[in-house]
Amino acid sequence: MKTAIQIILTVAILALGYLCVESIQKPVRFKQAHNERKEKVIERLEGIREAQRAYKSLNGKFTGSFDTLIEFINNDSLRLVKMEGRLTDSMLEEGMTELEALKKGIIKRDTIFVSVKDSLFNKNFIADSLRYVPFTNKEEFEMEATKINTASGVEVPIFEAKVHNNTYLKGLEEQEIINLNDADIAYERYPGLKVGSLTEANNSAGNWE
C-alpha cells in the first residue's frame, strides 16, 4: 500500500512539474514563432509598399488590385536618370545652373529605363508571391487604395495592405493570439500588421515602425 502511494505521489509531482514548466515554455515558444512569422510578413508588406510607390510614380495613384500591381511588376519599366559630372563649388558661386552646365556639356544626364522587377526585386522574383501571406495556405493580404483630402484641401492618393493576427498566426497557441489581439485593441491599434492607411496620409508607414 505504501509503495502504491509513493508511486502515485511521484507521478503527481512529475505531472505538476511538467505543467509548471509547460506554463512557462508556452509563452516562450509562442513569442519565438510569432517573431519568426512577423519578420516574414513585414518583409512581404515592405515589398508591397515598394511596388506601390513605384506604381504611383508612373500612374499618379496607388492600386487596390494585386492583379494590377503584379502585372506592373512583371511588365513595366521605371525611368532612371544616369548622371555624369557635377557642378563644382566655384561654378555654383559663379551662379552657373545645372541647365547651363548641361548645355555646355560640363555635365550629362541620360535617361534609361529599367524593368520594375529588376529595379525593386530581382529577375528571379515571383511577383505573384506578393499577394500571399507567409505561413498560410495562400491567404491573401487585404489591400485597398483611394484618395483623401488633407487638412489643407489637397487630394492625395493613399493605400493600405494588412493582415490580421488571426490569419498569419493561425496554428499557434490560441489563447496567446487572443491575448495579443486584446492588447492591440486596448491600445487602439490594428490587431495585426499593416502598411499604409485608408484614413490618413502617413507616407505608407508600417504599424511596426
Q: What does this protein structure show overall?
A:
With about 210 residues, this protein is an alpha+beta fold. It has helices spanning about 1-60, 65-75, 90-95, 100-105, 115-120, 165-170, 175-185, and strands at about 75-85, 110-115, 140-150, 155-165, 190-195. The chain folds into 2 domains: about 35-75 and about 125-209; about 75-120, no CATH class. The longest helix is centred in the first third of the chain and has 58 residues, at about 1-60. It is elongated and about 105 Å long.
Quick structural summary:
This protein has 7 helices and 5 strands; from the N terminus they run H-H-E-H-H-E-H-E-E-H-H-E. It has 209 residues and is an alpha+beta fold.
Q: What attributes characterize this protein structure?
A:
2 domains; 209 residues; 7 helices; alpha+beta; three-stranded antiparallel sheet
Main sheet summary: 3 strands, antiparallel
Class derived from helix and strand content: alpha+beta
Looking at how many chains there are and whether they match, the oligomeric state comes to: single chain
Shape: elongated
Number of strands: 5
Number of domains: 2
Question: Which secondary structure elements does this structure contain, and how are they paired or packed?
Answer:
Elements: H1 2-59, H2 66-75, E1 77-84, H3 89-93, H4 98-103, E2 108-115, H5 116-120, E3 142-149, E4 155-164, H6 165-168, H7 174-186, E5 192-196
Antiparallel strand pairs: 1-2, 3-4, 4-5
